[in-house]
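Consider the tokenized backbone below.
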């Protein structure tokens, strides 16, 4: 049944906004008037296709789901857990959350999920229709919660995970914001110097017909190229970015890039810790919610964000299936740090693997945050130093001819 979003006046003359389901716009207006609500505007939010089998989800849900922000999904999960805890039926809870969604795309997705449940699908099956919005972790945890009757608790844990990841992402962005801003301002200042300031000053030297020092000649050449060939630089950067993205889309290119990243000094260690922390957090949460170890490992390998780490986890899953321990299987590669292997081994031996994985995640998430803060602390003076050297070179290149002219006059 189509769902409509409306703005109306109630019997007291106050403006109200909500949603209503009806067969048509006319039926929606009649339904509102019978409740002493007088509509001002009615807009259709979602209309169910006549045939469920003829879904166009491949074409429709991808552009919609790509616009759903992680923060919005986390908020919806938290609100849904609260409503279920208050005794709301699942369909009623989802129906209540539809107008709360800030984006039209998410409203449509929630409406379709509600209809799928009303048609007999489980909540996990309805979520699985939108893989670009709901991750395999999300879907499997909901499936586990439905089967065990603990959906409310599972949703609370999912909200905790999403909020923790969002908080970590926000802290990383905040730490990088100032250095990135300084970098772009420095590039703009350098561009203005080379295209406007330097040419007006160096024109005096070129008109004199005097042999200029090498730094001055280099500065003039760089200024002329920047002024006349800036579009070449821009096109080169665009071509580089496009080519890099296309290479990364191939399996071989993705593998080579992930391999290079792990070997890169400083950055490789950071990426490794981030992947291990994500692995531990996700695996621990899945196991804590009743997902089997093999299923959890096959899910986790898709969320670590690095092909080499994913291959190590896939190998470990195969070894665990043969009867080997998780710690021994992971230790065959140097991807996972020794301390994480030891903690996982202790967790397996003590029967508290979920708890130990959570501690591993805490350790590496804190280390990632501290490392990024340390790098940004070094990055700020490094950018200032580089800009100082460039500006100093420009000043020196301009002053050298002046010093030579003073010596000739004397």
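A designed sequence for it:
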């Amino acid at each position: 049944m189509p769902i409509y979003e409306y703005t109306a006046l109630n019997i007291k003359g106050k403006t109200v906004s909500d949603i209503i389901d009806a067969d048509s716009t006319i039926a929606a207006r009649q339904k509102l008037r019978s409740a002493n609500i007088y509509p001002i505007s009615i807009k259709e939010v979602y209309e169910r296709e006549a045939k469920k089998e003829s879904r166009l989800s491949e074409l429709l849900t991808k552009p919609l789901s790509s616009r759903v922000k992680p923060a919005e999904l986390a908020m919806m999960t938290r609100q849904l857990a609260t409503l279920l805890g208050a005794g709301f039926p699942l369909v009623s809870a989802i129906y209540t959350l539809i107008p709360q969604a800030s984006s039209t795309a998410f409203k449509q997705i929630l409406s379709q999920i509600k209809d799928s449940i009303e048609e007999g699908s489980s909540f996990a099956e309805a979520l699985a229709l939108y893989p670009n919005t709901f991750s395999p972790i999300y879907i499997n945890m909901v499936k586990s919660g439905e089967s065990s009757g603990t959906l409310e608790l599972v949703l609370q844990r999912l909200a905790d995970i999403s909020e923790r990841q969002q908080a970590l992402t926000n802290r990383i962005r905040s730490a990088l914001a100032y250095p990135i801003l300084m970098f772009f301002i420095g590039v703009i200042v350098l561009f203005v110097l080379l295209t406007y300031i330097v040419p007006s000053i160096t024109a005096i030297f070129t008109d004199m017909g005097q042999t200029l020092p090498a730094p001055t000649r280099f500065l003039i050449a760089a200024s002329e190229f920047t002024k006349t060939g800036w579009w070449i630089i821009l096109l080169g950067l665009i071509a580089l970015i496009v080519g890099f993205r296309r290479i990364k889309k191939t399996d071989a290119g993705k593998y080579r890039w992930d391999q290079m990243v792990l070997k890169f000094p400083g950055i490789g260690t950071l990426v490794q810790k981030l992947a291990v922390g994500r692995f531990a957090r996700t695996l621990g949460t899945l196991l804590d919610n009743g997902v089997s170890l093999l299923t959890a490992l096959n899910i986790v390998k898709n969320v670590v964000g690095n092909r080499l780490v994913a291959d190590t986890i896939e190998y470990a899953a195969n070894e665990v299936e043969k009867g080997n321990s998780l710690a021994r299987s992971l230790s065959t590669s140097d991807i996972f740090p020794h301390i994480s292997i030891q903690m996982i081994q202790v967790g397996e031996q003590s029967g508290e693997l979920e708890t130990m994985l959570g501690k591993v995640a805490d350790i590496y998430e804190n280390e990632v945050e501290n490392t990024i803060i340390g790098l940004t602390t070094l990055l700020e003076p490094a950018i200032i130093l580089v800009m100082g050297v460039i500006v100093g070179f420009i000043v020196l290149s301009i002053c050298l001819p002046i010093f030579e002219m003073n010596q000739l006059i004397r």
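The chain has two domains: 1-47, 168-410.
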